[in-house]
Design goal:
By secondary structure, the chain is an alpha/beta fold. It is built from 21 helices and 20 strands. The protein folds into three domains: 3-169, Thiamin diphosphate (ThDP)-binding fold, Pyr/PP domains (Rossmann fold); 186-351, Rossmann fold (3-Layer(aba) Sandwich), CATH 3.40.50.1220; 354-548, Thiamin diphosphate (ThDP)-binding fold, Pyr/PP domains (Rossmann fold). Helices cover 37% and strands 17% of the residues. The strands form four sheets. A six-stranded parallel β-sheet has the order 3-2-4-5-7-6, with helices on both faces. A six-stranded parallel β-sheet has the order 11-10-9-12-13-14, sandwiched between helices. α4 (76-90) links the parallel β4 (68-72) and β5 (95-101). The chain is globular.
Amino acid sequence: MKKSGGKLIVDALEANGVDRIYCVPGESYLAVLDALHDSNQIRTIVCRQEGGAAMMADSHGRLTGQPGICFVTRGPGATNASAGIHIAMQDSTPLIMFIGQVAGHAKEREAFQEVDYKAFFGSMAKWVVEIDDAKRIPELVTRAFAIATSGRPGPVIISLPEDMLVDMVEAPEALPYTQVETTPGEHEMHRLAELLAGAKRPFVILGGSRWSADAKSRIEKATEAWALPVGCSFRRQMLFDHLHPCYAGDVGIGPNPTLAAYIKQADLVLLIGGRMGEMPSSDYTLMKSPYPDQTLVHVHADAGELGRVYRPELAINASPEAFSKAFAKLTPAAIPDWADETERLHASYRAWSTPPRTGPGAVQMGPIMEHLEEVLPEDAILTNGAGNYATWVHRFHRFRKFATQAAPTSGSMGYGTPGAVAAKALFPEREVIAFAGDGCFMMNGQEFATAVQYDLPIIVILVNNGTYGTIRMHQERDYPGRVVATDLKNPDFAALARAYGGHGETVETTEEFAPAFERARKSGKPSIIEIRLDPEAITPTRTLTDIREKR
């Protein structure tokens, strides 16, 4: 039976288990939209801007491990979405983005909204393909799923010429993809046991993707058996229970100095799943590239990442899922000598993650974070973009469960709101809190309308200090008193929430936050709680004046 290319696209998505897509509609893929109308399996979530749609797909991918699916139109639609693709690449998130393309007869003429997607996305995607023959749709779409999830996961771009989507062809039924698993060998695990037995100051760093709740649990039990101190890489904090006695802290931007000193002096680092890029390595100072001072054991699902930035003593080509099973079988012969040091590092983390109660202005973020720690359930999902406000989440929220964090390691702004929308759509029974700064929110805040449209009661905690805070901080440090291009005049965000059809609150004193948060919860609507923070409170411990005067 002949089917249109658009119908074959939807059939291939269904065969690969897709239950929702995020999109901004466009005339370039009307045939796909028409086929989606008849799908009983796929929920179509329409977004307000392609960047938000791509970030929703990224949030979906990082919270589920299955590719998030995004559809955008050609030209401006695709270029708008590129921020989300860059996030997925740097964060190793499985994602597939379909782009409508000009018809075949118009190619290479700079036709209306024509872009060469292989050139545009070639350096920020794992694979870019244009499907010219509708008969090959089942083959190429299923291959896209395999590529997006294999080795180091990442984004795949599929370009869909408009005329191809309306071609009526006979094609084979699509079959689901098979994810490739990589398992450590006995020799590698025996060598790891030898290295651990000879270590005096070991440390474990968890990062990357391809994790599961079971893998997290196995690593927690295995590291407890060895009394190993454990840290999570930048914005991968959901990979280990922060109240576990082995947890030593966040190996991210501005880490606990006690933790940073220990890692630099460690004699063995076991890096599981992560790449240890510029941010978690503190610009390659915690571990020097390419030759670290520490003996490095690097575990990664993609052989291409082993030895790429650091030369490991032992390279183990395995996914976190498979490695955790093998590691759980290793047991120490006796209580390791470093057990007391692990206890000391955990105590240091507990002190480091206790927020300050004072600071400039009428609103204190420390007590607000303490209140959230008291009232949020352990499975609450927190999302955020980039900005100094995010420090309050990364340093002072104690993550307990898997799939509770969605934040870009690439440092992209504008992620928190769309990330929260996707999270709430995936897990409607769980609380979803988006943290955003005023600058960060305004980059994709329009996706709050998507939350309203689909009745997804997220709560956006919007920290408004009237400035692009991180850049202002750097200005005061490097060019004191010479402020330019960082001041912001903002709308009334609570009124904006109500204009969208949501619930809005304004917090101008610390004491106002708890009742405002409770009202937002009870409203049953998507909510924005605007916290009007003094710009002097630029970090938890230093003010703008301190930085300017180098105190």
